[in-house]
Amino acid sequence: MPYHTKKRTAQVSGTILLSILCSTAVNAATLEEIREQGSIRIAVADEPPYGYLNENGEAKGVGPDVAKPLIEALEIDSIEWVSTTFGDLIPGLQEGRFDMVAAEMAILPERCQKVIYSEPTTSYGEGLLVAASNPQEIHSYSDFAERDDIKVAVLGGADQREILQALGVPESQMVIIDNNADAVEAITSGRADAYAATGLTVSDLEGRDPQLEVTSNFVDPVINGEEVRSWGGFTFPKDAESLRDAVNRELARYKNTEAWEQTLTAYGFTQDDLLNSFKYTTEQLCNK
């Protein structure tokens, strides 16, 4: 093929590729567009008590229960709930498969590069799920860095993986799972000796199987001299500022009501958790 023909073919191919990329670009729906549609798509990650769908397909958990009155106040008629894996939450927002996430996803600097957050809605600490009677005597995340005879399960996409890495736990001692429910099988089958998750998550899982328990005398992880604690928020696509800002306005009002406090405490959050949710702004957490 002559050079000029090759060059023209390459130019045409490049034009077609650019056209395809432009045609598949996803723009987040604005608040007004969502109001006109009458429905908003909100994702959860099947993670009690943060956000999940029950056997009847009803959205439950602190994320959905806080989101519902905010969406009503924004005059959006209905919510289409979407259940997916935790690791799919951010890709789903980026690809336009839902408009918002109500999974109490921890606000972390690396995630702030990919999505935008509401102001913090909750704050929560860490925990460990182990086999009943804790035969391996595991009491902290640091135990996995100090010993090479034990393995820990972590949820794919969750910040516990980064916490363990920061503490020096090698990847070879981590067992990556897709859902919280998988932690039960991981421990009872012997694939993992413990599951690292938030305190509320492991407490919920403890009640599902008598072979499991929340480790007693748990020692909170400390990184760079600071005790590890998470701040959760609603999550949105990068260009959904109008929706995020509107949710923030309603959230600020709602967090000053007894209804907000009652919702959180009903799911096991403590007064310390509630007070800590006011400690930082999202901007501060994104720049930590």
From TrEMBL:
Q: What UniProt keywords are attached to this protein's entry?
A: Signal
Q: Residues in domain Solute-binding protein family 3/N-terminal?
A: 39-267
Position of the signal peptide: 1-28
**InterPro entries for this protein:** Ectoine_EhuB, Solute-binding_3/MltF_N
Q: Is Isomerase one of the keywords? A: no
Question: What Pfam families does the annotation carry?
Answer: SBP_bac_3
Instruction: Report the record's Gene Ontology biological process terms.
Output: ectoine transmembrane transport
The record's listing under Gene3D superfamilies reads: Periplasmic binding protein-like II
Return one GO MF term: ectoine binding
Domain of life, source organism: Bacteria
Similarity comment: family membership: Belongs to the bacterial solute-binding protein 3 family.
Name assigned to this protein: Solute-binding protein family 3/N-terminal domain-containing protein
Organism field: Litchfieldella anticariensis (strain DSM 16096 / CECT 5854 / CIP 108499 / LMG 22089 / FP35) (Halomonas anticariensis)
